[in-house]
Amino acid sequence: MKPPFSPSNRFLDEAKALACVHCGLCLGACPTYLETGNENDSPRGRIYIMRALQDGRLPMADAAVRHIDLCLGCRACEVACPSGVQYGDLLEATREQIEKRYSRSAFQTFLRRTAIERVFPYPLRMKLALFPAQWLKRFGMDRFLPKFAREALSLIPVNAKSIPLPELSPATSAQKQGRVGFIRGCVMSVLFGDTNASSVRLLNQAGYDVLTPKAQGCCGALYAHGGNLQRARECARHNIEVFEKLGFDAIIINAAGCGSTLKEYGHLLHDDSAWAERGRQFSSKVKDLTEWLSQPGGEPSNLRSQISDLVTYHDACHLAHPQRITQPPRELIRRVAGRQFVELPESDVCCGSAGTYNLTEPEMAERLQQRKIENILKTGARTVVTTNPGCILQIRAGLDKAGATGIQVLHIADFLVATAEGK
Length: 423
Description:
This protein is of the alpha/beta class. The chain is built from 23 helices and nine strands.
């Protein structure tokens, strides 16, 4: 049994909650509001619900929880907000309270607490769990599964490569720039091992020795977004301890969702006097791969190739919104694609992946996936570049459903390496 909810269980920072003046400028930035037109599915509507839950004016029941669950956590509203509302903090605090006080169905409890939290952050477990799924897809057996299972399997690549990274990858450029740490990620290391290898290669070509500590673990993003902040803090403390004693110019991450959480360790641990400053120091060194490579003198010297097909770029939510990084990836793509680069309509509207959202909220995820695919097809691009594994899987699956099999979806690291090497 979940403990009873009462108004004494105050979980929101009042100043942050009251910063919202309900002006409505966030409405056009919110993907779920764009789809439903329901005020309760907008940022200001959800903040009203959060405050009502805290004050006891709304019960912690199905109706209120449904609107909070439907939020993607994309944080596009933070960019649009003139009052600087820290919506992400309010959302995570509310979701933590929901998981403590609200009883979910047996299926949702299994999906969130077991299938996601006990598998995705552990690469070996993920490999074992994905093997039968890949087997079913390879032999076409997935067509006999229920719709939910087919949708989930559509996201899984059949030929995913798990390529172990050496602990030290020395710079290959004649001019050495320094030494960086690398976060290999959980999903990245299992499903996108080749992308990790491409990322390290780009850093080596730019003159950096790359150290990938074997002892590193999950960044905590999946836990934080799912309301399990205690476990997210444990992940943060572990990674800080692993990386802080090694000494780096920067700590590089190539997955937008992970990067957002890694850059917020200081906030995540702000109530822990023993770890708060260590968290801030760690986060100050975290840089997205595109952010690091696009700095003066930071890019590989061999990014000179030109391509003939149109290329477009999808803004991964947690790179564009919490991290506010939008131009560096475009600059790197233009360096290669030149005039063949075309902007994607609604580039920064979520594709519906949102971590594990496409598993917990498949219907809304599919609506946003279709919206994204329609916009991609409008561009005429033959290559879609982005910076997050979930986005890649979601967009690939959407293009496959639409029969647009001739369009490739690439992580920016793979795109840059492939074009530079003429692949």
